[in-house]
Amino acid sequence: MIRQAKTQPIGVIGEIGAWDAMTPDERKVFRAVAKAHRATNLAIVTHTNFGKGALEQLDVLELAGVKAGRIAIGHLGGLNDDDATPKAIARRGAFVGFDRQGGPGDTRQVKMVMAMLDAGHAANLLFSSDLSTGGSQLKRNGGPGYSKTLTVFMPKLREAGVDEKTLHGIMVDNPRRLLAFMPKH
Ligand SMILES: [Zn+2]
Which of 30, 133, 168, 169 has its CA 20 to 30 A from that of 24? Predict the structure, then answer.
């Protein structure tokens, strides 16, 4: 990973996956990723199975020396009516990835985003479409396309009362803060 990061134009280490409760091998991979982060300073983006094991992922990375502000825990919008986990991750200073937006899960995600904003966690939110690779979501196949977070999901947040300044912070400032880094060579 370190060799790849130093020889190719890589901007982030991800997405690093685990399934439910982490297995010993998954923990080993996360520790290796932490090592690669310490050698390169690249941010880390993870995959959870609809949010399961999210706090454990953060635990393993932080224990291995990664600062929470350099970590985004992914797919947390898949948690069913669980506000506690995303809030706990934000309180610890890591980014909360709400993704797979612009589809049937939007109603639930709008609710979760509003709960995070009410709790003062706007600076810890990251959005993305996590477009499925099957092809049916592409515009040329009649789908909403890669831009669906902007074109489908964000209008729903505006309708729910989220102002432009907050949306700009989430869509521009937050990813910039996560992704900006001073490369170590
Ligand atoms: Zn994933």
Answer: 133
**9 CB contacts (<8 Å, ≥6 apart)?**
none
Going by pLDDT thresholds of 50, 70 and 90, the confidence category of residue 124 is very high
Helices (H), 16-77: 24-40, 54-63
Whole-angstrom distance, CA of residue 174 vs CA of residue 168: 9
* Distance (Å) from CA 74 to ligand 1 centroid: 7
The pTM score is: 0.94
Task: For residue 176, report the distance from its CA to the centre of ligand 1, in Å.
Answer: 21
53 C-alpha to ligand 1 centroid (Å): 13
The predicted-structure confidence for 25-81, as pLDDT tens digits, reads as follows 999 999 999 999 999 999 999 999 988 899 999 999 999 999 999 999 999 988 877
Domains and their CATH numbers in the chain: 2-179 (3.20.20.140)
What separation in Å is there between the alpha carbon of 99 and the centre of ligand 1?
Answer: 9
